[in-house]
Amino acid sequence: MLQILRLLSILVGGATAWRVLDGTMTAPLFKVPDLVVGAALVIAALLPRAIAPVALVAASAYALGVFSIALANYLVPGRPVEPLLIAAMAVNLSTLLLLFPRESHH
User: Fold this and answer.
1) Are 26 and 41 in contact (CB under 8 A)?
2) DSSP secondary structure string, 69-84?
3) pLDDT tens digits, 8-57
């Protein structure tokens, strides 16, 4: 499961940064946060196994926050929501739900 989440994190992070760098994402307010999200997700995915889950949780939480603000930008009448944004948010939420530490009852 961790390997799949790492790959998805690299995919979302890389795509997010790429959209900023190639000029697809044009909102100036989101350029720096999206670049930070891209870097955080990719770096977290590449860290050693011992710390990768915690790093992926942190990076995914940050990404979900940034993407939630971006989603609010779409919530105006007549403006369709970007499917890639929803997919990225689903990946981040899934990562959080699957990796967030749970209390052990031993």
Assistant:
1) no
2) HHHHHH-STT-PPPHH
3) 999 999 999 999 999 988 888 889 999 999 999 999 999 999 999 999 99
- Would the pLDDT of 103 be above 70? no
Q: Which two tokens stand for residue 37?
A: 């999200």
Distance of alpha carbon 41 from alpha carbon 92, whole angstroms = 10
What b/e readout covers 66-93, taking b as 16+ CB neighbours within 10 angstroms?
A: bbeebeeeeeeeeeeebeebeebbebbe
Helices (H) and strands (E) in the chain, counts: 4, 0
Phi first, then psi, for residue 48 (nearest 5°) are -60, 155
pLDDT value at residue 18: 96
Residue 66 tokens read as 């940034």
Q: Which of 25, 7, 10 is nearest to 63 (CA)?
A: 10
